[in-house]
C-alpha cells in the first residue's frame, strides 16, 4: 500500500468529489436484500444505446454460497480487501461472439455496462456504501465456475461496503488518485 494525494476539485457534487475506491472494508457490515434491489434498480435506470440494456450481474453477499465460490478466483492483490466487502457484484456485458449475428448498437455494450455500474456506485453512495471496481480476478475461471455463456463477457467486479479507511489514506499498490488536468481532456473548448 502507498499513500496517495487526493485530487482537489471544486463545484463537483459532494458524492462524486468524495467518492474513492477503498482498499479496506468493514467486515461486519451487512447489506440488506432491499439495498441490493436498489443497486440493481439504479443499474436498470441507466441509459443504453437503443435501450439495449446489455448487462447482467452476478450478486454475492458476504457469507453466501455465491460469495464463497467467487473468492477463490480473486487475484492476490484484490484478495487482500475484496472478501471483506459486504457485496461483490460481477459485471457482465452482452458481446458479439463468433457464429452469432451482429445486432444494432452491439458495439456500445461495454460502454453501456460501464454506465450501469456507475449508476450502481452512485446509488451505493446514497445508501452509505463505498464501492471499488476492479478487474484483478480470473475472468475465465469465474465464467467457468458459474457457466456464464460466452456472449456474456465477464468484464469487471464491484465491491460494495463501508470503507474502513479515509480517502487518500491508503491505496492499492500500483494505483493512483492523480487526475490529468481539464486541458488534457478537452480537444477544444471556448
Ligand atoms: C475498469 C476498472 C478496473 C479497475 N481495476 C482495478 C484493479 O484491478 N485493482 C484495483 O485495486 N483497482 C482497480 N480499479 C480502481 C482504479 O484503480 C481507481 O478507480 C483509480 O485508481 C482512481 O481511484 P479512485 O477510484 O479512488 O478515485 C479499477 C477501476 C476500473 C474502472
Provide an overview of this structure.
With 190 residues, the protein is an alpha+beta fold. It has one domain (27-165): 3-Layer(aba) Sandwich (NADH Oxidase), CATH 3.40.109. Helices cover 27% and strands 16% of the residues. The protein has six helices and four strands; from the N terminus they run ααβααβαβαβ. The chain has helices at residues 14-18, 33-44, 65-70, 76-79, 109-126, 139-145; strands spanning 55-61, 87-94, 130-134, 152-161. Strands 1-2-4-3 form a four-stranded antiparallel β-sheet, sandwiched between helices. Helix 2 crosses helix 5 (109-126). The longest helix is centred in the middle third of the chain and has 18 residues, at 109-126. It is globular and about 50 Å long. The termini are far apart. The model has no long low-confidence stretch (mean pLDDT 93). Flavin mononucleotide binds next to strand 3.
List keywords for this structure.
190 residues; alpha+beta; NADH Oxidase; 4-stranded antiparallel beta sheet; 6 helices; binds flavin mononucleotide
Helix and strand arrangement:
Elements: H1 14-18, H2 33-44, E1 55-61, H3 65-70, H4 76-79, E2 87-94, H5 109-126, E3 130-134, H6 139-145, E4 152-161
Antiparallel strand pairs: 1-2, 2-4, 3-4
The structure holds flavin mononucleotide.
Amino acid at each position: 500500500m502507498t499513500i496517495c494525494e487526493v485530487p482537489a476539485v471544486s463545484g463537483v457534487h459532494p458524492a462524486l468529489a468524495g467518492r474513492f475506491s477503498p482498499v479496506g472494508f468493514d467486515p461486519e457490515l451487512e447489506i440488506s436484500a432491499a439495498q441490493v434491489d436498489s443497486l440493481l434498480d439504479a443499474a436498470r435506470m441507466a441509459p443504453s444505446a437503443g435501450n439495449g440494456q446489455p448487462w447482467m450481474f452476478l450478486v454475492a453477499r458476504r457469507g453466501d454460497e455465491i460469495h464463497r465460490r467467487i473468492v477463490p478466483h480473486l487475484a492476490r492483490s484484490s484478495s487482500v480487501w475484496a472478501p471483506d466487502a459486504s457485496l461483490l457484484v460481477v459485471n457482465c456485458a452482452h458481446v458479439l461472439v463468433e457464429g452469432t449475428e451482429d445486432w444494432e448498437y452491439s458495439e456500445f455494450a461495454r460502454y453501456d455496462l460501464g454506465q450501469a455500474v456507475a449508476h450502481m456506485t452512485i446509488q451505493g453512495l446514497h445508501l452509505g456504501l463505498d464501492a471499488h471496481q476492479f478487474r484483478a480476478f480470473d475472468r475465465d475461471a469465474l465464467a467457468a465456475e458459474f457457466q456464464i455463456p460466452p456472449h456474456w463477457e465477464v468484464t469487471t467486479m464491484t465491491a460494495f461496503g463501508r470503507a474502513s479507511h479515509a480517502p487518500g489514506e491508503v491505496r492499492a499498490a500500483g494505483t493512483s488518485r492523480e487526475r490529468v488536468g481539464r486541458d488534457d481532456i478537452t480537444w477544444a473548448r471556448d
